[in-house]
Amino acid sequence: MDPIPEELLMALAGGAAGSAGQQIWQSLRGLVRREPAAGGRPPESSAEGELALLEQHPDEAERARELAAALHRRAGLDPAFADALTRWQAEGERAHRATGAATFEVSGGTQHSVVMAQNVHGGITLN
Fold first, then answer.
1. DSSP letter (8 states) at residue 115
2. Which residue from 21, 38, 86, 107 lies 20 to 30 Å from 97 (Cα-Cα)?
3. How far apart are CA 124 and CA 119, in angstroms?
4. Which residues contact 94 (CB under 8 A, 6 or more apart)?
């Protein structure tokens, strides 16, 4: 399982996707607090601390990276957690996409004039 994208964690921690996003975030909290499956090793880090820090600072990418790493480590130790986390991620991505949030990426060399927009009605003139 790949780590969960930090952008998704930040968006959901920050309240994106409305009430659906809030419910999905609450389900992550419940998943993190869940005990390991029978026979599973207790996690070295349950990710509860990282989750709480991201809730307090949802706009800090470093907090999101720390949570993603902790969830990834725990998923590697507990296959049942990994399965539940995969389902959680799919739900979170669906809710986030449903918000109509746009993401833009500019790459490849030096950029001098870049306009990022969504739903432009009319022209754009650069001088």
1. -
2. 107
3. 12
4. none
**pLDDT tens figures, 63-98:** 999 999 999 999 998 899 999 999 999 999 988 887
Q: Helix or strand or coil: residue 43?
A: coil
Asked if pLDDT for residue 16 goes beyond 90, the answer is: no
Radius of gyration of the chain (CA): 18
- Read off the amino acid at residue 102: A
d(Cα 70, Cα 46) in Å, to the nearest integer? 7
Q: Which residues contact 108 (CB under 8 A, 6 or more apart)?
A: none
pTM of the model: 0.71
CA 101 to chain centroid, in Å, comes to 14
Please report where in the chains the tokens 């930040």 appear, as a residue. 10
So what's the pLDDT on residue 52? 94
The reported pLDDT for the residue numbered 96 is: 80
Q: Is 111 helix (H, G, I), strand (E, B) or coil?
A: coil
